[in-house]
Amino acid sequence: MMKKTALILLSAAMLASLGACGKKPQPQPPVPPAPIVPEAPPPAPPPPARTEAPAQVDEYARLRAMSAEEIEKSGLLAEIYFDLDKADLRDADRETLTKNAAALKRFDFLRVTVEGHCDERGTVEYNQALGQKRAEAVQQYLTELGLGGERFRVISYGKERPASEGHDEAAWARNRRVEFTPR
């Protein structure tokens, strides 16, 4: 009987294996591809630390320690000159003012008085008004170059403070000017 039981079990196992071979496997749904995720760009390097060259730092500190008179004598801010009875800026004067603006931007602590001057010809009233127009034209141009108007005080001395005491065209040309006085 054992033989018979073994034979039955063997037959059942064979049938089970034959049945399994006869069936087609069920198709599996395709595996969707993994979504393509763009690679994140590498993080931007941090901006370089703002450092000024030691010479620039020393110059800034040196200038900051100077008195207004010393700054004025240093030649940092150049004066400009005008034609007779004019308050118009000439091209050369615009170049000078652009350099002055760069210095004022670099030394942001500087506040200046923009002084309008005239030669000795004409009345006191006329020269006072002309000196004011000259100083205002300069201040306006510097403001257009990006400097804040609060850094300037505009004043006219007319013909009261000549740079040259002469009474000829050369002296008069030196007196028709705008000067910058640190305050």
Give a brief rundown of this model.
This protein has 183 residues and is α+β, with helices and mostly antiparallel strands.
Describe this entry's structure for a reader.
This protein has 183 residues and is α+β, with helices and mostly antiparallel strands. The protein has a domain at 77-182: OmpA-like domain (60s Ribosomal Protein L30, Chain: A). Helix content is 45%, strand content 11%. It has six helices and four strands; from the N terminus they run αααβαβαβαβ. It has helices spanning 2-22, 54-65, 68-73, 91-106, 124-144, 169-175, and strands at 80-81, 112-117, 152-158, 177-182. Strands 1-4-2-3 form a four-stranded mixed β-sheet. Strand 2, helix 5 (124-144) and strand 3 (152-158) form a beta-alpha-beta unit. The model has no long low-confidence stretch (mean pLDDT 82).
Main sheet strand line-up:
1-4-2-3
Rounded Rg: 44 Å
- Percent range of helical residues: 40-55%
CATH superfamily membership of one domain, which one? OmpA-like domain
Structural class: alpha+beta
How many runs of DSSP E, i.e. beta strands?
A: 4
At the first level of CATH, what is the class of one domain? Answer: Alpha Beta
N-to-C series of helices and strands:
HHHEHEHEHE
